[in-house]
Design brief:
Length: 239
């Protein structure tokens, strides 16, 4: 499980506590906390304490900066086990959904299970009204462009095969990586299932997903519209 951290403190502890409580031990290989070097000293102290006191927590200091995408990519490189889980450490991704996602993975035989805030049983709490409308329009546009039933392609809360994430040529470094991380498997023909998840606004810290950076999402989509396997996979890799 990969938890990017940028100065979060209490929410990181809450997330780790919840994961250890709700995820079966056999399914929890390790929790990789990837902390940005610009994080606060308090955040570093919390993360070091978690590594020292929790058997399955491992702390990595992000080597390439800035960007959420870099943090997740470095987590991919360090990951072991059969699957990786992408989620946040700010409680905008609900740990209680993880067992549901794992059950769906087993029951469906899918390659990937991704959380969806737009389907029945899901929803938003505390999301800016204008951003919510723009998010919906963007998701519908992506669904049509890529001819997919997926309708929440920018929510970085998903379970993916470790072998797949290590075989893909990842290129993006900020929040647009969340779109890349689902579009490239989709282009490879991965079987992807969705589960409803409710999004709750963070109560700690500030989002680094700046509005002006949203243009990069369109760049990702344009790059991948007609991308073939040789464009997506690393040299010599197969999946």
């Amino acid at each position: 499980m990969i938890l990017p951290v940028y100065s979060e403190t209490g929410s990181v502890i809450e997330t780790v506590d919840a994961l250890e409580r709700v995820v079966p031990a056999r399914c929890l290989h390790e929790i990789l906390i990837v902390i940005a070097p610009a994080s606060s000293e308090e955040s570093f102290a919390v993360c070091r304490s978690l590594e020292a006191t929790r058997q399955k927590v491992r702390l990595l200091v992000q080597q390439h900066t800035p960007g959420l995408g870099w943090a997740i990519r470095e987590g991919f490189e360090a990951a072991a086990g059969t699957h990786v889980l992408m989620m946040g450490s700010d409680r905008e991704t609900d740990p209680k959904a993880v067992p549901v996602m794992l059950d769906k993975l087993v029951a469906s035989g899918a390659d990937i299970v991704t959380a969806n805030r737009w389907v029945k049983g899901a929803g938003f709490s505390g999301y800016n009204g204008l951003k919510l409308v723009l998010n919906y329009i963007f998701q519908q546009l992506m669904r049509l462009m890529f001819r997919t039933p997926l309708c929440d392609l920018t929510f970085g809360f998903r379970v993916m095969p470790t072998a797949m994430v290590k075989a893909i040529r990842w290129e993006h470094t900020r929040h647009e990586f969340l779109l890349e991380s689902i579009l490239k498997p989709l282009r490879l023909g991965a079987r992807i299932e969705q589960v409803p998840v409710r999004w709750e606004a963070r109560t700690e810290g500030e989002s680094k997903n700046e509005v002006l950076g949203h243009a990069r999402y369109f760049k990702v989509a344009a790059q991948l519209m007609c991308a073939g396997r040789d464009r997506i996979l690393l040299p010599g890799a197969s999946y």
